[in-house]
Design brief:
globular; 8 helices; alpha/beta; homohexamer
Chain lengths: 250, 250, 250, 250, 250, 250
């Protein structure tokens, strides 16, 4: 199967790192195709960045669907913890689409009665908290904690960064009475193994679980419902740079 | 005061119509400046359309903020019922920013114990329902009802369209036991007066209340908090067509 | 327009102070008529006080509606943070009626993702918390904090009182991760300016926003729905001192 | 023990009828003392009526507490389905205080997974729905249904009235998938027996369960907490007709 | 009346202690019949223990219902704070069935605006928290606190144990701003009196209130609804040791 | 990997059918070991049946963990839509444990904005509704619908049964405005394919998704957290038939 892994920001090193993480857990039969938008922020640390990133996710999935040559993806993963463009993506494909925050929350709730999220900038906690509410995990998610580490500083995360995240996670486990940690940024993929060993509780990397859940759904032939809310967009004219992304009359 | 009225879609007739509606209710001292994105969908009828529209809202507010010549807006209204780009907009201005769905819900909850929303395509009800949940109006909003009238068909709404909306509104008032109707599309602005006369209950046009609430907040010197979640974006490089929209180091 | 400003307690100095605050923000065309009940508590600091105050609000609005000479009010504001008699008032007028807690919560949720309330006696926090739940602001209101300053001590609030409120507000902003402060008592109106300068975040005086929101709704011709739950009371005999407040057969 | 039964409206026949109902279920050792306010509405069918009734409840409990001669009540029941003045009453006594809506909801949730409320005027459904939310019974209460029978028409309820209530109850049981009916008005006390026989499910009269629960709590020496939110009111001057109801300095 | 008191664990000393507590508060006309399962855990301190205990509760009630000689119980109380087997029990009897957690929460919410639970092992807090959610007391229950005292250590609770519970309760009252304490284990029955005297707030023993509420409901002829969700089980074959507990065809 | 598939009821044909369904979707490297309790109900159609089934699930997992010969399972699936014994099972293993209701809800919420559940006896709807609340899917699950088909009648489901389920599903999709159907009984596994073809929306068989999700979690080395709420049970003596299931001192 072909799994389209969309990194919503425009940092090639991060796209590469996320792709490595995805390939490390994907089934041998799964081809990971990692892409990033042709425009937008180098990292996503707020609502403003997300507005551009969501459009970038739509752009990339649209291109992957259209490209006559390649087959369309069998599954899609959006690798940014704010799940930007998740709903938009679901409208334009029959494949299952998973966001990594969503996948991380689902997985954590299967492993512990309560979990805590450890993320980057404190100002982005509100984004995760809104998703927790939207998805219905308010009873399971007992806390969202910022470390105020910048996303791009995760790319070459030294021991200090890891120690800082470990420290925040330990405090969260005890203060929140949580049993698992969800890593609140795709850029933390590379730290999952180390943190798991250090913390002794399930540490969940949304990228990894999103890939496995997407494989699971695709294997069962389950995809995004085209009945109702996620039906294919209505025919529509788009203008400006986005004109290629309109929807033709059928 | 200068009120920036952003129509998130790219239909100039609709931008014009909304501007007329806004000017009709604005205070004499309020200058309404109506804009629309330089790109994106002609109308917004789903999540995919919204993803582009949100970026368009960010683009327009950013341009309005930057343009050295003009003064920055004293208040901002986003005139699409999905409130696309609302959070993004709040990050990049100190002015108050209101979405018309948000404003409509707030107003309705001040006038009746329960209200119903009458909108366009049924497939977009989920967008309004999510906002209702997000903003906390689940006890006041007793129903969201689609008419399956296309947004652009509202531009020259004939009597059939009005009758259809009236009919849906009447059914909603009785089935939902509601006391007020919130119009679920900026394109319905022009129908508000007629529907009010016909229905005999408060019929709320989000554009009108958003304009008045924005004037109210601005008059009190109240604006978007820059403390915490809505703080100005972090310095960041943007790429591709969006490169002008990055945030310089300070 | 004529705006009836009802102070639910019987402290004339407070009625005067609140009226001053309202006049300072009202539009030139708005006539502020400030009244207080003919009976009841000098200040409202609990459920027992509120029970009498709510009846007092009903008394005053009824008198203002009836008085043949004067025109009936075009808008009504109830200036006590518990919003006593709000529902009762809405039944007996077609004008919009706003409580200051309600107005403060609505305004704060338009300016920040989360706000905190700073009020007087800790024992009254439960009243604000119940309103937060009733109105649907449980996700936006991140904390209600008592200062244990008596309401009447606000009348001639010295620097100690202000410092104490500022201190509580600072702690709330950081502990609650809030972006705005809602002042939890009409008696704090006079402190709003100072606290805004000191705190550097939006500080919301419910009286001011209630006046502006009431003006906004009235300007649009929007009033309390008479369809259903807020319909005019049924004809009814009242006895005792309340006999003038019954409702005649029509 | 002495149980103060307060009928918040001023209909002596209803006070008498409710007292009969209470005495019929009270323990032999329980003395039922039934009172009604010295002022206010003959029946309670909306928020406006309730505002006066709540003050009337406070008046009567205060008088019962003060009257040196008689001992203070050991328990208090407020016999109107809107539970007017419940919180106020709790502040001024150490005895347990129960509202009949509250008691009815608690009892129903112990007997069935879901219950429906059948009440009088449809316009009062909102009052019961608000209490359901306030008390936390939103998952158990599956519907609140109005019969549009006036409260005073229950006093000499003929077979038509009973048939109408039975019919509404039957529809509620099936449409709401409920297992029990809560009667939504103290005036329905006299119909409970008949409806129980006809419907074959638990039919709950709030007056009866409130009396028994109050006896239960009093028997265990449990009363309203004076720690925090329900502490005795602060010393305060009251004015006008309410001046006797202020609270002296201690 | 005959009240079946089921201790879901298999500790005879605890069954005896609970029975003593129940008899101390029961009406003279109430016969307390205390039983315990023929199998299962000596104490219940987790989900695994509860799974066996719930079956044990079903076993004991079934035996009590069947035993031709004795009359069936008029009311049932399940004396373990997790309310194990509560739903199962309700299916197989027409008598009212009360769990002690349920009864404790209901009672506390009648006496204070907020209460705190003090229980045994911290690992069991999640069980109480789930019940709080299930029953709808999330606004009233402001905290569930573990003492990490083992259930069986309560049997001969020395002063250290009592002091520890008192200390946890005091902290809860202040940190949670609560007005009452609910004891989170049937084994704490014997400590209720002492803690009440020491804390000066209502301290609620679920066993005592469950007994009194059960008496109250039974006295009114109210029992578990057999309409719908709690209807008598369908005829069914059971196998293995449970074969006597199947349900014969009728 | 070894996946323990526990059928909580004692119907061998159903255990066989479920095992077939699981094997049909499992990875080649996954060994499905299907078991059923040594005691209890032939089918689970209510709370009483569930009480025995939960203990049966605990029995079987305990046996599978203990049996020195075989390796312990790498993942566990509980194949009854009420998820009986789910929490108990998580306490006694480090492997991931999934219930089929839980898995079905998670999967559905990844594929549609809203889903409906179609189950067997209407009386069991409450069980699914409680799980929906417990797991946090109240916004996604738009309806739970009974067909009143007995569980055992699914074993040799003729066309009538399928037609009936299809009919209920069609009505649910339209009335609930849902985009996916979750089959509310493990016995419906065999009907999933047919219903998918007929309905044209995702039809989710909890057994299949639970198997794939369990494989996904196990593949990532993720298992039930032993930190806190799901920690291994405390040492404890069990009595009667359950004595082998106590927990030895370590």
């Amino acid at each position: 199967m072909k799994l389209l892994l969309i990194n919503p920001n425009t940092s090639s090193p991060m796209t590469h790192a996320i792709a490595q993480g995805a390939k490390a857990v994907a089934a041998p039969t799964t081809e990971i195709v990692a892409v990033q938008p042709s425009f937008g922020p180098l990292s996503i640390e707020g609502h403003y960045d997300e507005a551009f990133a969501a459009a970038g996710v739509a752009e990339q999935l649209r291109l992957a669907q259209e490209s006559g040559a390649n087959p369309a993806p069998d599954a899609v993963v959006i690798a940014c913890f704010g799940d930007p463009g998740l709903e938009a993506a679901r409208e334009i494909t029959r494949a299952p689409v998973l966001g990594i925050a969503e996948a991380g929350f689902h997985a954590a709730s299967m492993l512990a009665t309560g979990f805590s999220v450890v993320t980057t900038m404190t100002r982005t906690c509100i984004i995760a908290e809104r998703l927790v509410q939207r998805y219905g995990f308010e009873h399971q998610c007992r806390g969202v904690h910022g470390t105020d580490i910048a996303v791009l500083d995760l790319e070459d995360a030294g021991s200090t960064v890891i120690d800082q995240i470990e420290q925040t996670a330990r405090e969260a486990l005890s203060r929140d009475r949580s049993g698992a940690i969800v890593l609140g940024c795709a850029g933390m993929t590379t730290l999952c193994q180390t943190l798991t060993e250090r913390l002794g509780v399930p540490v969940i990397d949304g990228v990894a679980v999103a890939v496995k859940f997407a494989e699971a759904l695709a294997a069962l032939g389950l995809g995004t419902s085209k009945h109702g809310d996620y039906a294919t967009p209505l025919p529509k004219v788009y203008t400006g740079w986005a004109s290629p992304f309109g929807w033709p009359k059928r």
